[in-house]
Amino acid sequence: QVPLVESGGGLVQPGGSLSLSCAASERTFKTDHLGWFRQPPGKEREFVAAIRWRWGGFITYYADSVKGRFTISGDNAKNTVYLQMNSLKPEDTAVYYCAAGFQVADIGNHNEYLHWGQGTQVTVSS
User: Fold this and answer.
1) CB 70 within 8 A of CB 83
2) Spacing of C-alpha 93 from chain mean position
3) How many CB atoms lie within 10 A of CB 61?
4) Based on the number of CB atoms within 10 Å of its own CB, is 41 exposed (0-12), middle (13-18) or buried (19 or more)?
5) What would you report as the CA-atom Rg of the chain, rounded to the nearest whole angstrom?
6) Alpha-carbon torsion, ordered 125, 11, 69, 50, to 10 deg
7) Which residues of 48-58 are buried (b: 16+ CB within 10 A; e: fewer)?
8) How many Cα atoms are found within 13 Å in the side-chain-facing hemisphere of 69?
9) pLDDT tens track of the chain, all 126 residues?
10) Strands 10-12 and 120-124
C-alpha cells in the first residue's frame, strides 16, 4: 500500500478556517489523482475535491457544496496535497480522508480510489 500521511483537523468555529495536509510518495503524487473525501456522522462518504498534475500544471475539481470556500493545491517539492477550508459551516463537520487513484474515470467516485489515509476529524461548532 502507498502511504498517505494526513495532518491537520481539529475544532473550529463557524466562519473560521482550517488547513489539511496529505503527504504522498513521489510516484503517487506524480501519476495519480489525489482527492479529499469526507464522511459526516451517520452519512455516506462524499467527494470534496481532487487534484492532478498534468500538462505542466495542476488540474483541480470541486464538489458544488465546497466550491468557492475550499481550495485544493499541491506542492511538487514535498509531494504533498493541501486542502484550505474557509468560511466553514457546521455541515462541514466530518472525518476527512485523503485518497489516491490511478486512471480515475469518475473523479467523484470513491470506489475508484484505492489508497486511503487514516482520516482526520474536522468539527465546526460554536
Assistant:
1) yes
2) 14
3) 16
4) exposed
5) 14
6) -130
7) bbbbbbeeeee
8) 16
9) 568 999 999 999 999 999 999 999 998 988 889 999 999 999 999 999 999 988 888 999 999 999 999 999 999 999 999 999 999 999 999 999 999 998 899 999 999 999 999 999 999 999
10) parallel
Task: Please give the Cα distance from 109 to 117 (Å, whole number).
Answer: 16
- Give the span between the Cα atoms of 56 and 112, in whole angstroms: 24
Grid cell in block for residue 56? 505542466
Residue 46: other Cβ atoms inside 10 A:
15
Q: For residue 2, what is its C-alpha cell?
A: 502507498
For the chain, counts of helices (H) and of strands (E): 1, 11
